[in-house]
Design brief:
Distance between the termini: 32 Å
Low-confidence stretches: 1-6, 230-242
Protein name: HEAT repeat domain-containing protein
Strand order of the largest sheet: 2-11-3-5-1-6-7-8-9
InterPro entries: ARM-like (IPR011989), ARM-type_fold (IPR016024)
Helix content: 40-55%
Strand content: 5-15%
Length: 461
C-alpha cells in the first residue's frame, strides 16, 4: 500500500492518538501508525512535543522510546523549531553524543527531509556518529517512497558501504561503470595531500601504499573528499577526533592522467606516529618520497591545505631514483623548511605571506581605488555562489587587482603553491578538462586503518 493511499488513515490515527481514545479505536490507530512506518514519524514527533502526556507517551513508544521524559520532549521541540539554525544545532547535538542517542533514530530520520539542505547534511552526519545501531531505521526509510530515501542512502554509506541494500549496490555499480567510461575530467581545487607517480601500473601503486580492497569510482567521487569546499564543507563527523579514522581510512588512486598516476590521501603511518621529534614529519615525508622513487623512478608529493589564511600551508617534495632532489614546506607559524635547490618550476614565484593582495593594495593603491576594488570582491559567505562560481569570480577579481597594481608600477608575482608547482611539474588539477588524457579508471582503496572499518562515505558520482 503506497504512502499516498494511507495518508488519510495516518491523519485519522494521529487524531485518535491526540484525543486519548482508548479501546478498539486506539488498537486500530496503533496498527495504522506502525504499518505506516516513516510516513507517520513526523506526526508522532509532533505528538510527543505538543500532545498531552498520555498521547506523548503513546507516540514515544511508537517512535522507539521506552518512556518519554521532559528531556526527550525538549530535545524534540528544538528539532521542530522554525529556525533552521536551531534545527541544525539540535541535530548536531544528537550526533555529538554518539550511540547514546540511538533511541532518537526515528525522530532523527524525519530531519532527512528537512527543507534546509544544511540540516539534512547534519542529519546524515549524526547518523554516521550514532552508528550501526541506526541501520534498521535507515533501511526502513530507504525502502519507503519518501523523498528522504536518498538522504537515507547517504547516511547508510557514511556508516559503511556494507550496510547498503544489495539491490542499491548493483545499481550504483552499474552507474559508476557507465559514468566512468564517459567522464571528462573537471577542474579540481585540492585541499589535500597527493602524490604523482610516473607509472601506469595501478597494482604496483596499491602495493606500494599498502592499500587493499580497491573499489572503482568516478573521478568526481574520488576527488570529493579532498576538494576545497566553501558552501558544503565536510561535516565534523569526518574531521574531528570522533571520526574513527575516516581521514586516514581510504586513499583515492586516480586514473592515469597525462601519464601520471595521482594518489590522494595520507598513508596510515604518516598520520599516527606522534612519538617522534618536531621535525619528524618533514624527515618522514622526504624518506617516503625517496623510497617510492626507488620503485617508480620519478615521484612528487604535494600538500595544499586551506585553514583560514594564516593557518594555510603548502609544500612539495621531489625524488628521482632514490635521491631527494627538493623539499619545500611553508606555513605561517613555522615559515619555510627547504632542502635542495629550487625546482625550475619555482622560478618567478614569490614566498607566501599573510598579507597577499590585500596587503599590496593597502601599501600601494590610492584609497579610493582600493575601496572600489574591495567593494567588488566576491563574498566568501555568499551561498548563492557555488564553489566553482566563487573560484571563477575570485580569479576575475584578483586579475583586476593585479592590473590596478601594475598601473602603479607594482608587478605581482604568482605565489608559491602546491597547485601551481603541480601544474608545472606533473598535472595541473585546476586545468583538468577535455584535453587531459585519461587511461583506466580511479579506485578508492583501504589503508591499514580502513581495513578495520571497511569502506565508508557518501560521494557524488
Amino acid at each position: 500500500m503506497g504512502v499516498e493511499s494511507i495518508e488519510p488513515d495516518i491523519e485519522a490515527a494521529l487524531g485518535v492518538l491526540g484525543d486519548g481514545t482508548r479501546g478498539a479505536e486506539w488498537a486500530w490507530a496503533e496498527t495504522v501508525l506502525r504499518q505506516a512506518g516513516p510516513a507517520a514519524w513526523p506526526g508522532l514527533a509532533e505528538a510527543v512535543v505538543c500532545g498531552a502526556d498520555e498521547s506523548a507517551q503513546r507516540a514515544g513508544v511508537l517512535l522507539g522510546f521506552a518512556h518519554v521524559t521532559d528531556e526527550i520532549r525538549i530535545r524534540m521541540s528544538y528539532l521542530l523549531d522554525e529556525d533552521p539554525r536551531e534545527r541544525r544545532e539540535s541535530v548536531f547535538a544528537l550526533g555529538w553524543r554518539g550511540s547514546a542517542m540511538a533511541p532518537f533514530a526515528r525522530v532523527l530520520a524525519t530531519m532527512l527531509d528537512d527543507p534546509d539542505p544544511s540540516v539534512v547534511a547534519e542529519a546524515v552526519g549524526a547518523f554516521a556518529r550514532i552508528g550501526r545501531v541506526t541501520v534498521p531505521v535507515l533501511r526502513e526509510v530507504r525502502r519507503s517512497t519518501l523523498s528522504s530515501r536518498r538522504a537515507a542512502l547517504a547516511a547508510l554509506a557514511e556508516i559503511g558501504w556494507d550496510t547498503i541494500d544489495p539491490w542499491d549496490v548493483r545499481v550504483l555499480t552499474r552507474l559508476i561503470t557507465a559514468k566512468s567510461r564517459a567522464e571528462i575530467p573537471q577542474p579540481f581545487y585540492p585541499d589535500a595531500e597527493w602524490y604523482a607517480l610516473r607509472t601506469t601500473d595501478r597494482d604496483a601503486v596499491l602495493r606500494a601504499f599498502d592499500l587493499s580492497d580497491p573499489v572503482p569510482v568516478t573521478m568526481r567521487a574520488g576527488f570529493e573528499r579532498w576538494f576545497t569546499r566553501r558552501t558544503t564543507p565536510p561535516g565534523p563527523w569526518l574531521l574531528d577526533e570522533l571520526a574513527d579514522h575516516r581521514q586516514c581510512g581510504q586513499m583515492f588512486v586516480a586514473p592515469v592522467l597525462d601519464g601520471w598516476t595521482l594518489v590522494f590521501g595520507k598513508p596510515k603511518h604518516m598520520y599516527h606516529d606522534d612519538t617522534a621529534e618536531e621535525d619528524y614529519e618533514h624527515d618522514a615525508q622526504q624518506r617516503r618520497c625517496v623510497d617510492l622513487s626507488r620503485q617508480f623512478g620519478t615521484i612528487y608529493w604535494y600538500v595544499q591545505i586551506f585553514n583560514g589564511g594564516c593557518g594555510d600551508w603548502t609544500g612539495w617534495c621531489a625524488a628521482e631514483r632514490g635521491t631527494l632532489t627538493r623539499y619545500y614546506h611553508h606555513d605561517f607559524s613555522e615559515g619555510a623548511v627547504e632542502v635542495g635547490n629550487p625546482l625550475t618550476a619555482e622560478a618567478g614565484l614569490r614566498e607566501p605571506d599573510g598579507a597577499g593582495l590585500l596587503g599590496l593594495m593597502n601599501s600601494h593603491l590610492p584609497r579610493e581605488t582600493m575601496l572600489s576594488l574591495l567593494g567588488t570582491q566576491p563574498d566568501y559567505d555568499d551561498r548563492d555562489l557555488d564553489d566553482t562560481a566563487y573560484v571563477a569570480a575570485q580569479q576575475i577579481w584578483s586579475d583586476q587587482v593585479r592590473a590596478a597594481l601594475a598601473d602603479v608600477g607594482v608587478d605581482v608575482l604568482p605565489t608559491r603553491s602546491a597547485s601551481l608547482i603541480a601544474e608545472r611539474t606533473t598535472v595541473g588539477l585546476d586545468e583538468l578538462g577535455p584535453g587531459t588524457s585519461v587511461e583506466g579508471h580511479g579506485v578508492l582503496a583501504l589503508t591499514e586503518c580502513g581495513r578495520r572499518w571497511g569502506h565508508r562515505g557518501a560521494f557524488p558520482l
